[in-house]
Amino acid sequence: MSKNILHKASSRGLADHGWLRSRHTFSFANYYHPGRINFGALRVLNDDIVAPGRGFGTHPHDNMEIISIPLEGDLEHKDSMGNVAVIRHGDIQVMSAGTGIFHSEYNKNSDQPVKFLQIWVFPDKKNVSPRYDQISLNPADRHNRLQQIVSPNPGDEGVWIHQNAWFYLGRLDEGFSTEYRIRSAGNGVYAFILEGEVTINGQHLEKRDGYGITGTDLLSVTAVTSAEILLMEVPMEGFPA
Question: What dotted CATH number matches 3-123+138-235?
Answer without folding.
Answer: 2.60.120.10
